[in-house]
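Risk mitigation, structural track. In case the binding assays with zinc ion fail to produce interpretable data, a predicted complex structure has been prepared as a fallback.
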Amino acid sequence: MKQFACGSVIPGCQAVFLAEEEDELLREIAAHARDDHGIDEITPDLVASVREHIANVSG
Ligand SMILES: [Zn+2]
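Fallback model:
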């Protein structure tokens, strides 16, 4: 499983995402960024910083 805490990129955000695959996780994050942070464009830079904070979790 892959896990991402939005707060590691956007301080103060409590959202945490969990998905089997990184692609799926990135889609969830993109929807959250759009709906909750008003980020319409997921730039390559943003994807890169998100990827740096994705953790592998077991179970
Ligand atoms: Zn967030």
